[in-house]
Amino acid sequence: MPVLRNKPIRTWENGDVVQGFALLTKKEKREDRNGKSYLDLEVADASGSMVAKVWADSPAMQGKFEPHRFIAFRGSVKNYRDQLQLSVDDCREATEDDRRYGFDESLLIPSTREDIGDLWRRLTRLLHEKVDRPVLRRLAHETLEVHGAELREHPAAKSMHHAYRGGLLEHVVSMAELAVRICEHYRDVDRDLVILGVLFHDLGKLRELGAMPANDYTLEGRLIGHVVIGRDLLRDRCRAIAGFPEELQLLLEHLVLSHQGKKEFASPVEPMTPEALILHFVDDLDSKLNQLRASRDATPGMQYHRGLGRYVYLPPIPQVIEWDEPGHPIDQIGQIDPHAEEALEPEAPPPDAGPDLEPLCAEEEPASAIDAATIDTAAVDAAIVDEVQPPLFRH
Description:
Blueprint: E1 3-5, E2 17-31, E3 37-45, E4 48-54, E5 69-80, E6 83-93, H1 116-130, H2 134-153, H3 167-185, H4 191-201, H5 205-208, H6 219-223, H7 226-239, H8 246-258, H9 274-298, E7 301-305, E8 310-314, E9 322-323, E10 329-330, H10 340-344, H11 378-382
């Protein structure tokens, strides 16, 4: 079977043999039922992530590679309990020399699919237009001045939801926009409090977690946790505003401390105000839907979701073709695509090009510009020798 080289993780399918580079986001040593050691891994790139295993008989068990580092790997994709996972045959840390084979960190750091600049504009506009109290608008403005640069880049979690560059900003903006709509329906709730609660509820993760690509718990994060850290950050910002109302600060602190919902979920207190209930449910909804979106991208269909503890059905999102009034297909930016009708017609099968032969030696350097979603592997393939000892694993 031909090896797929430098293909984005979200394009992998059951049965694929893959080789390339990834960010190793998890590495844990475990034992199977027979007492044999294996490695439980997670690999990621800009397109997504996948669980990976290194079994006891794999040469990769002797490899030198650590979590939160970039790796070169080879393995096969398999379906296990309705989820795809990578069985790793060989693995090592990536090196500078690997750049001629397509290694590029920017393609391997999981990032939000949203435009970070657009997310930032939506958040700042919402805080300015939807927060009525001047003192709370000032609180929001000064918070973004102090923490905005980190907020734009930080992940929202280590692995559960929005665990990628810009994930925290995406999560906050999504929650804030949804919270505004809920407050328009329930007009007796305090919209200002809900919006400020959204801004501060996970702000403690700026110190609980390291930034990408590390995205692991800090010592402060382990010992204290983002909920209490977030409450402390809120207190710092309130103290910076002379005469900040004490009762208003108390209600905001309650929002941060109760947003996890239940004490067994590390919430020091449970929601006791309407605004705290809204914040908790909006947070829970947005995080769970993000998890389901990631699962759908990885393996559409019926699958067991560990986070929810149940089977879920996630059919592929159908591709919708829009038409103008005369009946012409319209492309994504609303322009008539003159080739779209031709694309809808079935193409004639290409003539048999014969077996896919690979060169025995490297003659040319691969192209340096590689797109994360549609990587052209022709140049990379030309630089990689036979299957027995590919260059990725000679070191």
